[in-house]
Amino acid sequence: MATKNLTTVMKSGKKTLNLCRDTGYAIIGERINPTGRKVMQEQLKNGDFSMVRRDAVLQLEAGAAILDINAGLPGADETKLMIDLIDNVVEAADDPIICIDTANIKTMAAALEYYCKDGKRPLVNSVTAEQRVMDAVFPIIQQYKVPVIALAGDGVPKTVEERLKAADTLVNEAAKYGIPTEDLLIDCMVLTLGVENKAGIMAFESISKIVEKYGVNITMGASNISFGMPDRPNLTAYFMAMSSLAGLTAPICNPMKGTEVAALQAADLCMGRDAHGMRWIKGSRARIKAAEEAAQK
Fold first, then answer.
1. CATH number where 97 lies
2. Does residue 92 belong to any structural domain of this protein?
3. Per-residue b or e along 155-179, where b marks 16 or more CB atoms closer than 10 Å to that residue's CB
């Protein structure tokens, strides 16, 4: 008997997202992150949030359901910057579902205290299977009753078995705090094919076995698979489509890369998760319109 697919609930002040494998994928937009983005870094250092506000809107228009917010700017007060980023994203993008992305426990707690009012339930990124990290993060997750991305490792796992063991640890430890399994989004920690030629098959096996056992929602930093390889958008897109069959529900990716979004929409349609093909039709029309507009420039 198959394990029931669990539903993870996220809320902003205006929106609710019921994430479940039965109803298809939800993209976590990754672009509100200054890491490796020199222009955004310079703007943020000068108190300029124009790129952040623009990317928040564009990601939602391109198909993101959740906006990841990372305040990892070298030399900055991360806690203050995180709250400023939340304010700007909420205002610019009409109060979207957000993901608070930080390894800083102080920042995590402060951001949740600031944001979690009136029933809001953001996603948190992240907790690992390392005991000291679980001891620090799970009490905060318990206090604010929010879902969290749980990395299936206490380092970089090398095998499927290590990922499964870490998932067991995370589920069992969360239960000690009264955190329900549906509030964990498991990340199987995808490796790059440029270093490990079995990275793809390990991801598929890990996802399918964890889903079979727990029914949890699955996330991943999807572009990790193609790092260092040519034609990254196509490779990442095909990998995400295949991962959807294994059980992926919430990839962390750049929704403005149309190839990746199209692959996810095609996967949902082929797997019977897109009633009457409406999501595919809408996406197809948007892609045709964008191509026509680009041709006219």
1. 3.20.20.20
2. yes
3. eebeebebbbbbbebbbebbeeeeb
